Amino acid sequence: MRNNYMPPKFNIIRLTNQPPVVAALAELIIETVAHGGSVSFMHPLAPEAATAFWTASLAAADRGERIVLGAFDGDLLVGTVTLLLDCPPNQPHRGEIAKMMTRVSYRGRGIARSLMEVAEQLAIDNGRTLLTLDTAEEEGAAGLYDKLGFQRTGVIPDFALKPHGGLTGTIIYWKRIGAAAC
Question: Which of 1, 19, 135, 161 fits as disulfide partner to 140, beta carbons 3.0 to 4.6 Å?
């Protein structure tokens, strides 16, 4: 018997600096950190700190320094990724992927892949030919990045604290995109 299952479509949009968006992003990062996601914060992450982070991040997006994407299932924010565009003057060709997160109950449904594909296309649209990113060596998204064609540069041991304590290494990745990928 053939499996005709089609995964649900999620609406992916650029996020703007509005209170409901900030609140949804704050809720998502708090959940991610609580479940061990290494996204620069320690557990427990205070709502005020999460709100301040996303308010500043979306203000940077308003200035054109980054693009913050959100994946929605109806009105519910189920994932996000940030494309950093504000690189040093000698790196105008590069973008960086940051803060890739998917709600725990929505993982394994292709949301992260979809977010990454949109972010990569936006990077190309913004004249970028190289993407970089890093992910935790333990419990990070290395498998996803490998499948998406990112190349491992290496691992920096003991790079960061895990949200619940202890050290983890960080894997550094890169990928040529757009005309540079040919």
Answer: 135
19-34 and 47-62 are packed helices; what angle lies between their axes, rounded to 10 degrees?
A: 130
CA 145 distance to own-chain centroid: 11
Q: Are 180 and 131 in contact (CB under 8 A)?
A: no
From CA 87, how far away is CA 84, in angstroms rounded?
A: 8
Instruction: Report if pTM > 0.85.
Output: yes
Please give the backbone phi and psi of residue 86, each rounded to the nearest 5 degrees, phi first.
Answer: -85, 75
Query: What are the pLDDT digits (tens) for 32-80?
Result: 999 999 999 999 999 999 999 999 999 999 999 999 999 999 999 999 9
Burial of residue 86 (CB within 10 Å: 0-12, 13-18, 19+) is: exposed
